[in-house]
Write a structure and sequence with these properties.
The structure is a single chain. The chain has about 230 residues and is of the alpha/beta class. Helix 8 packs across helix 11. It has two domains: about 120 residues, Response regulator (Rossmann fold, 3-Layer(aba) Sandwich), CATH 3.40.50.2300; about 80 residues, Winged helix-like DNA-binding domain superfamily/Winged helix DNA-binding domain (Arc Repressor Mutant, subunit A), CATH 1.10.10. Keywords: DNA-binding, Phosphoprotein, Transcription, Transcription regulation. GO terms for molecular function: DNA binding. Pfam families: GerE, Response_reg.
Length: about 230
């Protein structure tokens, strides 16, 4: 685990904001900039802007709205962290959505808070994730994983369906379980992004699930003595 990072007035937490509402962005910026050890270094109102500005600014923390007109903050979290693994992402949403929470966990988010949060609590959350700690409640996370595994529509068929996957599909499923994007999976396995997408569509159908995150949970049940195989470089 990386050592906890410390921030001071001279070396403040560099924060990047993503929200499609300008008023919300301004409010968040005013709230956070008022703290001596926090500095808002940039913002974005769309997914495209965030994917361009985020890597250029190299923030310590990204506060990301989950629902956006041109996509979602969870995919932004996944993409930004693929370029900046040290980035801490704090997901901000108006909805208490368990599926979005699980998606955020799979994308590597450090925290997930509702927009109804008090200003002082949001400031604390930014400091917490900046220090390398998690704002995701372990009991909630465990409950979500259990509920997905226990879904009666899926659970009985899992072992045989997993066994029916081709070696390539098993590799891709394992990488989905690691939270990789289609592009990252393609690079690792020397496949085009479109080919990866087609493989994923087929394996979701074989597993009898509709959502990528459900497949990621099932990936944890893969029993492969040679699990290192799909991680081999070159």
């Amino acid at each position: 685990m990386p050592e906890p990072r410390t921030f001071t007035e001279q070396h403040p937490i560099r924060v990047f904001l993503l929200d499609d509402h300008e008023v919300v962005r301004r409010g968040l910026a005013d709230l956070l900039d008022a703290e001596p050890d926090i500095s808002v270094i940039g913002d974005a109102g769309t997914v495209d802007q965030a994917l361009v500005r985020g890597p250029a600014l190299r923030p310590d923390v990204a506060v990301l709205d989950v629902r956006l007109p041109d996509g979602d903050g969870i995919s932004v979290c996944r993409e930004l962290r693929s370029q900046m693994p040290e980035l801490a992402c704090l997901m901000l949403t108006s909805f208490d959505d368990e599926e979005a929470l699980l998606d955020a966990i799979m994308a590597g988010a450090s925290g997930y808070v509702l927009k109804q949060i008090k200003g002082s609590d949001l400031v604390s959350a930014v400091r917490t994730v900046a220090a390398g700690q998690s704002m995701l409640d372990p009991s909630t996370t465990a409950r979500l994983m259990r509920s997905l595994r226990a879904d009666p529509a899926e659970s009985p068929a899992v072992p045989s369906e997993l066994a029916s996957l081709s070696p390539r599909e098993r590799d891709i499923l394992a990488l989905i379980g690691d939270g990789l994007t289609n592009r990252e999976i393609g690079k690792k396995l020397y496949l085009s992004e479109k080919t990866v997408k087609n493989h994923i569509s087929r394996l979701l159908a074989k597993l009898g699930v509709q959502r990528r995150v459900q497949a990621a949970v099932l990936a944890s049940q893969l029993e492969q003595p040679d699990t290192g195989e799909h991680r081999t470089k070159g």
